[in-house]
Write a structure and sequence with these properties.
This protein is about 75% helix and about 0% strand. Keywords: Membrane, Transmembrane, Transmembrane helix.
């Protein structure tokens, strides 16, 4: 990875962290994490995986669940981006990513905070599906520029 990609990934991570940390409803069961729009970047260009995963890791350190949220969040991204290597359709990847978020964050919130799984699952899946769909629409409209980088 040359220095250009290191800079791109650093900027992506910083934007993800900033968008998450300033968002008052970006964590727990009822959340709208606007920064998840950035999570679709690796579906267009795999060179952005490190930036998104680093951003998720740093941002999740600021949640009330700390290191557990870091492990779960980065793990979800790693699984979703591995699957996306085989599934080339952006919209299917958006759905897979959203479902993974709903399942694993729902389980984490059940285990740690005792929150009802199904409420967490549905609220997180739906909010993630909305924000990642918006991100996919935005990045699809400029897709050739993202893949050419």
């Amino acid at each position: 990875m040359n220095s250009k990609y290191v800079v791109y990934n650093a900027v992506i991570a910083a934007i993800y962290v900033a968008m998450t940390v300033i968002n008052p409803i970006g964590t727990m069961a009822i959340q709208i994490r606007v920064s998840e729009m950035i999570s679709v970047l690796p579906f267009f260009n795999r060179k952005f995986i490190p930036g998104v995963l680093i951003g998720v890791g740093i941002a999740n350190m600021f949640s009330g669940l700390g290191i557990l949220d870091v492990i779960v969040g980065v793990g979800i991204g790693a699984v979703a981006y591995t699957i996306s290597y085989f599934v080339k359709n952006v919209w299917i990847n958006v759905i897979i990513f959203s479902l993974l978020c709903g399942v694993f964050v729902g389980w984490m919130l059940l285990a740690v905070a005792g929150l009802p799984f199904w409420i967490s699952f549905f609220s997180i899946t739906i909010s993630t599906l909305i924000t990642t769909s918006i991100g996919a629409l935005i990045f699809k409209s400029i897709g050739k520029r993202i893949t050419a980088i």
